[in-house]
Amino acid sequence: MIPRSLLIGVATLLLLVVSMGIYLRHMRQRARQPEPAATTEALPVTPPATGPTETVTLYVADDAAGILRPRSAQIPLPGGRQQRAEELLRALLRIYQQPGSAHPLAAAADIRSIYLVDPGAAVIDLNAPFADQHRSGILSEQLTINSLVETLAINVPGIQRVNILVEGKKRETLAGHADLTDTFDVMTIEQAGNQ
Question: 98-143, pLDDT tens digit by residue?
Fold first, then answer.
């Protein structure tokens, strides 16, 4: 006669083997099914600007030539200086985020806010993806900074100095090269662009 404890042990092992077989079959079927489409990162949606459409000048970076090119654009601009400044830079970013851009930026790159501090100072607050996903390189980074500063200065009268923050905080560099700790003087950037 077979001991009762041996029969219970064999039955338990058999039940465990069958359960593992069912689980393995289930996992193989799941592996064969296609993965659901990856969800894109939810981006904040900025409401469209309201206001009269105006012709503005955007300074668009061209990486191949290493220069900024002035480009006229028709965009609706709100009446307030701060909202106007934000919409100007967002219009510039939309150019950089288009496929085939001469100076591509990440789709998630955005302007969090712009603070206009009198007399003549502005603070641009970028979101983290703007800096974290920016291509590294001194020329690329400097063109981005110069593009933001010149576009802002030419379209919002009275701006002479610009500081750049990332997520509301000082950051040493944009993507490893261009120094963000200093204040950018509009006249100096304009002179460098004219050389």
Answer: 888 888 888 888 999 999 887 889 998 989 888 888 887 788 888 8
- pTM, two decimal places: 0.69
Provide the residue count of the chain.
195
**Rounded to whole angstroms, how far apart are CA atoms 194 and 69?**
11
Residue 63: is its pLDDT beyond 60? yes
How far is Cα 44 from Cα 107, in angstroms, rounded to an integer? 11
Contact 115, 73 (CB under 8 A): no
Tally the C-alpha atoms within 13 A of residue 3's C-alpha that lie toward its C-beta: 3
Cα–Cα distances in Å, from 3 out to 7, 9, 10, 13?
7, 10, 11, 16
Cα 156 from Cα 142, distance rounded (Å):
21
Burial of 1 (0-12, 13-18, 19+ CB in 10 A): exposed
Helices (H), the chain: 4-32, 81-96, 128-132, 138-155, 186-193
The stretches of 37-185 forming alpha helices (DSSP H) are: 81-96, 128-132, 138-155
C-alpha span between 106 and 5 (Å, rounded): 66
pLDDT in tens, 139-193: 888 888 888 889 888 988 888 988 888 888 888 777 776 777 888 888 887 766 5
